[in-house]
Amino acid sequence: MTNSVPDLLPDLAPDSEAVACRDLRKSFGSVRAVESLSFALRRGELLALLGPSGCGKTTALRLIAGLERPDGGTIHLGGRLVSGPGVFVPPNRRRVGLVFQDYALFPHMTVERNIAYGLAGRDDRRQRVAEMLALVGLDGLGGRYPHALSGGQQQRVALARALAPQPDIVLLDEPFSNLDVALRRQVREEVQRILYEAGVSAILVTHDQEEAMSLADRIGLMFDGALHQLGTPRNLYERPASRRAALFMGAANLVPGHAHGAVARTALGEVRLIEPCQGAVEVVLRPENLVLNGAGDGAAAVVARQTYTGARQDVWVALRDVPLSLHVTCRAGAPWGVGQPVSVRADGSALAFPASPDST
Amino acid sequence: MTQRRFALILLAVSLPLAALLLLPAGYLIVRAGAVEPERAIAYLTRPGTLRVVGRSLLLVITVAAAACAVAVPAAWLTVRSDLRGRRAWTVLLTMPLVIPSYVGALALVSMFGQRGTLQGWLAPLGVERLPSLYGFWGAWLALTLFSYPYVFLSVRAGLRGLDSALEEASATLGRSRLATLWHVTLRQLLPSITAGALLVALYTLSDFGAVAIMQYNVFTRAIYLRLSLDLGLAALLSVVLIVLTVGLLAAVTLAERRGTYYTRRTPRPPRRVRLGRWQAAAQAFCGLVVLLALVAPVGVLAHWLVNGLQQGEALRDVLAPLQRSLRAAGLAAAVSGLAALPFVFLQVRAPGPLTGLLARGAYLGYALPGVVVGLAFVFLGANVLHDLGAPFGQTDYRSLGLLVFAYTVRFLPQALGPARASLLQVNPHLEESALTLGRSYPRALLSVTLPLMRSGVVAGVALVFLTAMKELPITLLLAPTGYDTLATRIWSASSEAFYARAAAPALILVAISALSLVYILEPDE
What we know:
The complex is a heterodimer.
Chain A: H1 5-8, E1 17-28, E2 31-42, E3 46-50, H2 57-65, E4 72-77, E5 80-84, E6 87-88, E7 96-99, H3 111-116, H4 125-135, H5 151-163, E8 169-173, H6 181-198, E9 201-206, H7 209-215, E10 218-223, E11 226-231, H8 233-238, H9 243-248, E12 253-266, E13 269-285, E14 290-293, E15 299-308, E16 312-319, E17 325-331, E18 341-346, E19 351-354
Parallel strand pairs in A: 3-9, 3-10, 7-8, 8-9
Antiparallel strand pairs in A: 1-2, 1-4, 4-5, 5-6, 10-11, 12-13, 13-19, 14-18, 15-16, 15-18, 16-17
Chain B: H1 3-34, H2 37-45, H3 47-80, H4 86-94, H5 101-112, H6 117-122, H7 136-161, H8 164-172, H9 177-206, H10 209-213, H11 219-226, H12 231-259, H13 279-310, H14 319-349, H15 353-362, H16 370-389, H17 400-424, H18 428-436, H19 441-470, H20 473-478, H21 486-495, H22 499-514, H23 517-520
């Protein structure tokens, strides 16, 4: 998972934050949706707020857009205080573009009128609408009504409408969840291109880690209304801050072991640790960090189940001496069959977290 | 302007509005409470009053039962059997709904009355007079014939929402077709039958026209007759009637809520039962109902119209009442449509205990029979408006303004329902999009929400207009002297047995009400 986009960004001045949230709080009745959320979005950056449903990421987006009033904390947009003690700038004066999960296109207006909606009172309306249609590749469809468009096209109209008034920042709430899987990857790349061409800072909310990793410059991982970890996709995948983060960022085997500094002793033998540790631990081993062999080299196991997905093969093996099942990814066409004895070993070094039941 | 500030402004508008809507019922209750307790108890427990209560209950129960007996088979035939001409029968069987009860009762009397048309036909056979139609049987017949479509429509909707997979499951589990009909189909239909029957009960309890013409002394007529004798006792009776109506309304709400469980999923189109040799009997059944409830009344009215024209009744006499009806109903519809908006916005977009209470207050009109609303305003007029107007030489409190106000109190709920439904269908994200695109909240509503609500608001306004056109007791009690409308014209003609004079306005009313079918009949099949 390499991510080259940050390298393309111009040098950042430290105070050039497009969005800065500090200690943001919001409850609905007794439900605390967002609790002391703090983060900053750099100009031109695409940040993904990633987390399970109900973690408060959509509420965070609505607070930034001004659709909800925070119970506490501050929000700065481009250095301007828009929400804080005694200050609340309404959404129509925030210069924030918002793309809803359901697109929220005005059903009684054509595509053109939808895009022109945010351009009231501007002389260059016509020209701007044409530019936007060209940007999202919908030239010639301006006279259509939203219901006559496909899901992917509606999505692009929603993006064009949000970008038309040249907002300082664009917020996207689960923008791809209404598209079928086949279309999703294509639209994702398209949206990424449009956002970079428009040169706009953006926050994307999603519960899909693959989506967040493939799109975002940085990912803010949210649990229980607060930011858990903020970093590049690679950083989050390879160096998760907790066991929970490790599990959320992708499939992982948690292998119990005993750490002695740079090495942990486990059922798979000794595993080198990225960060030294002591005592009972759980070692995080991604399926691609495990290697299967015919015999000898590693712990003895039996193939319990396997699935074939074309590009690769997922194999689940049961260790012979310990009640532990491991998920291993192999290249497609590997010769393993159910019931076959194999041996497993760890490849490379791994992260370990202290093994306590409530470890975070 | 933010959404919060806009909601506050709406609240400031709708609070006094709600107070105005509650004023008549509130005043009535206050006046009823002012009757000395001993006198109130003596009046409420004397045999005459108890007979009124008994008659009302008898009529409500028998009409509801008869309506079900007619409507459930009719609904089943049009939805689930291969009855020939199903679509036409559906429309024809729904049509009696458009005949105002007093018009229908008048038609029945002029047809089957002691010296009605039928007697005229039978006279050559030596029939001097027919048995009297007045009293219970006449009221029962009229109310059944013109209210059964409520059950018909409700059961039809239930049948169409029914999942035929359940019946198939019953069949595969070894039950016979009859057992399935009884254990599965009818059981599932029970909520829609109940909902329809309760609507009929509500209609019967609050009806004034049919019982007045049939001279059957139930609550509404007793209140109307009491009016000129003792306002306090009339108010007392009204409060009892309101309590009964509220009870029925609560039952309707409960039944409708229970009735929704099977309409959630999209069912497969039902399998139609082949009638075979029963086809002719089914046709005869539907034909008889339509003959009695639609063809006979309209035919009789047409007959009287022709008679009248031959005897020199001038058709243009009806133009001025028509204009007055249109003006009063039109104003009421416009006022209701406007007044509905703040309530609906608050209820849907700013839900909370206060706005919920406000919205419920606006629905009060449903619980107030026309005669009660009329009485409340007569009370207010005679005691409050009269004193206010007297110094200015205004001694008659009755005015077009008061009439429109009373219509609005009674019919506002009909505008609220469709407006609320249409607002519920507008995704709040649309307004929020408009906000983030730089529009203020009121402008977002004007450019996005209101255009999308248009069909609902128009439907509500149309319904208010059409029902206000037909309203009899409120018009009788509150129309200014000389403000003769179609409804009052029919009323006075019928009380003087000038059937020919009532025919033209009655037919006009029926024709105008028929327009409301557009909103009642869902596009189907």
